[in-house]
Amino acid sequence: MRPLLIILILMLVAACTSGNKEYKEETSENSFGKMAVPNITLYYFYSPTCPNCIAIEPYMEYMINKSMLKYVLCNVKEFENCSKDSKKIGRVVAVELYKKTGVLSIPTPTLVILEGKNATVFLGRDQVSHMDKYLYEKYNLTTFFIKFGDKVYKPSDCIDCHVSKGLGEPSSFTCSACCHRIGAEGEKADISISLR
User: Fold this and answer.
1) Is residue 73 in some structural domain?
2) What is the mean pLDDT of residues 117-145?
3) Where are the beta strands (DSSP E) in 23-160?
4) 20 to 30 A Cα–Cα from 5, which one of 22, 29, 32, 88?
5) Farthest CA pair distance, the chain
6) Residue 182, helix vs strand vs coil
7) Same domain, 89 and 12
8) Rounded to 5°, angle at Cα 140 from 139 and 142
9) Are residues 60 and 154 in the same domain?
10) What is the CATH number of the domain that holds 92?
11) Residue 128 lies in domain
12) Final residue of a domain: which of 121, 139, 157?
């Protein structure tokens, strides 16, 4: 899988550097002070009929709403309506996977994180639904973390917990009694905290 990612990165650099817009670094203000937002764009390829896309839809909505990053969404069923950059990236992903599998398509879900001329590709439900770990490890982003009691969780921790308990993936990222076995008062999580 690593060689495929390296090849995809090189191909994306070649395909996407022409006309690639630079986005100004922004900061976010929260109760812990200002946090730099990295200059990256996340391209998300999905299909409204894809079972794996439907399963991680709450995760993607949560990340899009809480992470303060630039997301570009591309519904592959309506590929002609996707942005010019999404189309370039999607074609590169499809061609590289065709070389490996003989199938010419953009698998869904797929997420491509583009930072300048560097790209990281997440293929499939398991990889895409754990991109928060990558964003934390690479960029120290914590704005999407969830605080419950005295513990702090990444959204992918919630997914792993739910799946391990046979609950399926969470339909929201508001902690409740279903997973944490809390009292009848139904304590809710403090969403979007920062550890900085």
Assistant:
1) yes
2) 90
3) 26-30, 33-37, 41-46, 70-75, 110-115, 118-123, 145-148, 151-153
4) 22
5) 57
6) coil
7) yes
8) 120
9) no
10) 3.40.30.10
11) 2-18+38-139
12) 139
pTM: 0.72
Answer left, alpha or beta for residue 192, where phi above 0 means left and psi between -120 and 50 means alpha. Answer: left
Q: Tokens representing 177?
A: 């009694």
Backbone φ/ψ region at 124: left (φ over 0), alpha (ψ -120 to 50), beta: left
Write out the two tokens for 115. 């930072």
50 and 72 part of one domain = yes
Residue bearing tokens 């590289």: 96
Q: Are residues 107 and 176 in the same domain?
A: no
Burial class (CB in 10 A: 0-12, 13-18, 19+), 136: middle
Strand, helix or coil for residue 43: strand
Q: Is 101 helix (H, G, I), strand (E, B) or coil?
A: helix
3-state SS string for 9-40: HHHHHHHHCCCCCCCCCEEEEECCEEEEECCC
Residue type, position 152, single letter: V
- For 96-126, the pLDDT digits (tens) are 888 988 888 889 999 999 998 888 999 999 9
